[in-house]
Design goal:
- The chain has 5 helices and 5 strands, in the order H-E-E-H-E-E-E-H-H-H.
- By secondary structure, it is α+β, with helices and mostly antiparallel strands.
- The protein has one domain.
- The strands form 2 sheets. It has a 3-stranded antiparallel β-sheet, covered by helices on one side.
- A hairpin with a 2-residue loop joins strand 1 and strand 2.
Length: 118
């Protein structure tokens, strides 16, 4: 029996929150139903996912938040850009224009050491 009760509890919570979110939307007049919002602190979104919302949730360089609204369903998504930045796996320098134009250290050094023509 060990961990089985815990997974059953999680399933029950997910089903309950999902049903409560659907009921919350159905209680609204038809023109006010947006099918996304919050149930207490838990976000939900039952609209069809879009590419823009996928990027905003899972790879958003403009946000420092690791946890973002889920694209579809209930709960949170992980902004992998913010997570990798906080883990110092990637940084702003990683995305610099200079890194794309001069990808090697020897090329950068050669350009830094070149004589200045006036």
């Amino acid at each position: 029996m060990g961990k089985e009760w815990f997974f059953r509890l999680i399933q029950a919570v997910v089903i309950t929150v999902t049903l409560a979110a659907v009921c919350q939307e159905l209680e609204k007049p038809k023109e006010e139903r947006h099918w996304h919002g919050k149930l207490g602190i838990i976000p939900y979104d039952f609209r069809l996912p879009t590419l823009e919302r996928l990027k905003e949730s899972y790879w958003n360089p403009e946000s420092e938040s690791i946890f973002t609204k889920e694209v579809w369903g209930i709960g949170w998504a992980v902004n992998f850009h913010a997570l990798l930045e906080k883990m110092r796996i990637i940084s702003e320098a990683y995305y610099s224009e200079e890194d794309f134009l001069m990808p090697t250290k020897s090329l950068k050094k050669a350009l830094e050491d070149r004589p200045v023509v006036e």
